[in-house]
Amino acid sequence: DAKTTQPNSMESNEEEPVHLPCNHSTISGTDYIHWYRQLPSQGPEYVIHGLTSNVNNRMASLAIAEDRKSSTLILHRATLRDAAVYYCILGTSYDKVIFGPGTSLSVIP
Amino acid sequence: SAVISQKPSRDICQRGTSLTIQCQVDSQVTMMFWYRQQPGQSLTLIATANQGSEATYESGFVIDKFPISRPNLTFSTLTVSNMSPEDSSIYLCSVGGGEGYYEQYFGPGTRLTVT
């Protein structure tokens, strides 16, 4: 399975943008880049996914490097509710989701 | 999207006993998954359960310990058998996968404590 590398933890001030990095140098051509997050005491929730082009949705933006070996999840304006563990995961639609340790994001009021 | 419910939400069990966790989805889905999340850890996939076939278990998990049923496209159960304190975890089911479906949806989890 292709692996991802994320920082263990990050901090952000409330109402500021947050850039969560993910390295995936062994990504294959068919692998999508998925992001999930897990709020405290909840199950994970889907955030966004992309293949080659940058993607935007109501929750976040996903910026994918041209060589696809890294990507960045962008929260445009962090709120306290965005404090969670964020997981960057590679796979296709048929794949099971394998979670790494993720990045624990703290949002400071 | 899919809405997933799990029963029970939490339980305290004695060692040596078994607990069956139910997972109900509000729509028909092909693939269902069971995860374990030990305290302070990330999620670990236990098995994939597709309707009409035997569950596929990940390395380190066996059917005798975690038997799974998948009787139809909206329901699955996971049994934690002969429990020990090391089985104290949150157990989550999720649905998704299949052609064109890139999102998985997760249930709220079942918090199990074994004494």
Distance between the termini of chain B: 37 Å
Strands of the biggest beta sheet of chain A: in what spatial order? Answer: 1-9-8-3-4
In helices, the fraction of residues of chain B equals: under 10%
Briefly note the structural class of the backbone of chain B.
Answer: mainly beta
Q: Short description, anyone?
A:
The complex is a heterodimer of chains A (109) and B (115). By secondary structure, chain A is mainly β.
Could you name the key traits of this structure?
heterodimer, A: 109 residues, mainly beta, 5-stranded mixed sheet, 4-stranded antiparallel sheet, 9 strands, 46% strand, B: 7-stranded mixed sheet
Plain-language structure description:
The complex is a heterodimer of chains A (109) and B (115). Chain A has 109 residues and is mainly beta. Helices cover 0% and strands 46% of the residues of chain A. In chain A, a hairpin with a 6-residue loop joins strand 3 and strand 4 (45-50). Chain A is globular and about 40 Å long. Chain B has 115 residues and is mostly beta strands. Helix content of chain B is 0%, strand content 51%. Chain B contains no helices and eleven strands. In chain B, the strands form two sheets. In chain B, strands 2, 4, 5, 6, 9, 10 and 11 form a seven-stranded mixed sheet that branches. Chain B has a four-stranded antiparallel sheet with strand order 1-3-8-7, with no helix packed on it. The mean pLDDT of chain B is 92. The A-B interface holds A 32, 34, 36, 38, 42-46, 49, 85, 87, 93-102 and B 4, 31, 33, 35, 42-45, 48, 92, 94, 96-109.
